[in-house]
C-alpha cells in the first residue's frame, strides 16, 4: 500500500469521525447548558462530569486543529486526530454515566482511562509545537485523575 493511500485512508477516517464529533458537540453542549449541569454540582461525581466535559471541549479544539493541519499537508497529525476522536466518544459516555450516577461507572471509567491515556500520549508528541495538543493532553490527565478518584 502506498503512502498516499494510507494518508487518504486516515484522512477519510478523520472526516467520518468529524461527523461523530459534531454529534458529540451537540450532546456535550446540551448537557452543559441544560438544568442537568446544575444537578451534577451536588453529585458525588461532579468533578468527574466537569473533567469529562473539559476533555470534550479541549478535544474538539485539538481535532479542529488537526483538521487544519491536514489541509496544510501535515500528515503527522493523523494518529493524534484518531486518538482524540476515540477520547471524545469515551468522555461523552463518561460524562453521561457519571451525571446520572450509573452503577456501571467504574467499568466505564476503566475503559475511558485507557482511551484518555492513549490520547494524552499521542497529544504529548505534539504538545511542544501545538497548544491545542498540550491543552488536550492536560485535560486527559485531569480526567484520568478524576476517574481514578471514583469512590
Can you characterise this structure?
This protein is mainly alpha-helical and 151 residues long. The protein has a single domain (3-148), classed as Substrate Binding Domain Of Dnak, Chain:A, Domain 2 (Up-down Bundle), CATH 1.20.1270.360. Helix content is 81%, strand content 0%. The protein has 6 helices and no strands. It has helices at 3-33, 36-40, 46-71, 78-99, 105-124, 131-148. Residues 18-40 have low confidence and may be disordered.
Main features:
mainly alpha; Substrate Binding Domain Of Dnak, Chain:A, Domain 2; 81% helix; elongated
Give the arrangement of secondary structure elements.
Elements lengths: L2 H31 L2 H5 L5 H26 L6 H22 L5 H20 L6 H18 L3
Report the CATH architecture. Up-down Bundle
- Percentage of residues in helical conformation: over 70%
Low-confidence stretches: 18-40
Secondary-structure content class:
mainly alpha
Question: What is the subunit arrangement here?
Answer: single chain
* Biggest sheet overview: none
CATH class: Mainly Alpha
Order of helices and strands: HHHHHH
Distance from first to last alpha carbon = 48 Å
Note the beta-strand portion: under 5%
Task: Supply the number of structural domains.
Answer: 1
**Gyration radius, in Å:** 16 Å
Tally of contiguous helical segments: 6
Please count the beta strands (DSSP E, at least 2 residues each).
Answer: 0
CATH topology: Substrate Binding Domain Of Dnak, Chain:A, Domain 2
**For the residues shown, what is the average pLDDT?**
81
The global form is elongated
